[in-house]
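WARN no homologs supplied; continuing
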Amino acid sequence: MAAIIRPMRIGDLPQVVRLVESTEGLAFKKWETFLVLTRTLLRNWGLAQVAVLNGEVVGSVFIAEGLMVMVHHLVVAPQARGQNLATKMVQAGLRRVYRKKWASRRVYVTTLPSNIGAQIFWSKFGFTHQALGYLVLFTLDLGEQEWLSQQ
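OK structure emitted
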């Protein structure tokens, strides 16, 4: 059975937090509690996405919109990797941002310099990057992405 990609719900957060906390190489801070992630989800309703397989959250991504769009905490459980879930979740969330005509068109992602897998992923997605010492900053202009208008 294939995983379903859908907008994250409040009820998904306990599973999402466990998944994020158990993922190596992710810059998850102790202050990013259930409450902080709940507020992020509520302020950006419909943008965060999850991958669900047999009732279990096996992937998640948070997308926060304001003056800029930030993508963070993209994770896929080890047993669900290789199914293109990360790409599908990011595309689903960024399409929702793109459809908001007033939304920011510049998207930002940061990774740790040691997270080579993330750097390869975001580069393949069309993001450009710049090393900032302790972080690598990736940027993407939504106005230049043809895949956004595809389904």
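The CA atoms of residues 111 and 136 lie 5 Å apart.
OK
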